[in-house]
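In response to the reviewer comment on reproducibility (Comment 2.3), we provide here a single inverse folding case reported in full, input and output, so that an independent group could reproduce the run without further information from us. The C-alpha cells appear first.
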C-alpha cells in the first residue's frame, strides 16, 4: 500500500473575510434573510490547523475500507484514537504508512485490522512497535469526470 503525506505548502490556508463584508449600514434588507453563506471545505475539515494533515491514497489496497486511489484522507494528529476508527500507522520503522481499522478483538484487546480480510490483525498489546500517525477524520473522494 502506498500513501503520500502532503506537505504544509500543499494545504489550503484560511482566508480572512474582507472588511467590506463585515460592515452593516442602515437597515438590513429582507432579501438578506434568504442569503445562504458559502460552504468552505477548508474550514469544515479544519485545514490550516497544524495538527491536520492530508494524505493521498496511491493504490487500491484500501478498497475494503471504501477508500479508492486518489482519495484524500484528512488526518488529525492530535485526536485520541478510540476503537472503531481508522488510523494511519507506521510499523517496524518502515518509511511507508498504512491505514488500519483500530478495533477490539473478542478478548477486549486493541487490534489493528487491514482492509484485506486475509491479513492477520495486529494485536497492539502483544505485537511489534506501532507508531500511530493520526486518526482519519474525513475521506474526500472524487466521483465525477
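Designed residues, in position order:
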Amino acid at each position: 500500500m502506498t500513501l503520500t503525506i502532503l506537505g504544509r505548502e500543499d494545504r489550503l490556508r484560511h482566508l480572512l473575510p474582507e472588511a467590506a463584508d463585515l460592515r452593516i449600514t442602515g437597515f438590513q434588507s429582507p432579501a438578506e434573510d434568504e442569503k445562504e453563506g458559502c460552504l468552505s471545505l477548508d474550514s469544515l475539515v479544519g485545514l490550516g490547523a497544524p495538527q491536520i494533515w492530508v494524505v493521498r491514497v496511491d493504490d487500491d489496497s484500501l478498497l475494503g475500507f471504501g477508500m479508492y486511489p486518489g482519495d484524500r484522507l484528512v488526518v488529525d494528529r492530535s485526536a485520541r484514537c478510540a476503537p472503531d476508527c481508522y488510523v494511519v500507522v507506521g510499523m517496524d520503522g518502515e518509511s511507508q504508512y498504512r491505514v488500519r481499522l483500530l478495533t477490539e478483538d473478542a478478548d477486549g484487546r486493541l487490534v489493528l485490522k487491514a482492509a484485506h480480510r486475509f491479513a492477520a490483525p495486529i494485536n497492539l498489546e502483544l505485537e511489534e512497535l506501532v507508531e500511530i500517525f493520526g486518526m482519519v477524520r474525513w475521506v474526500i473522494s472524487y466521483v465525477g469526470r
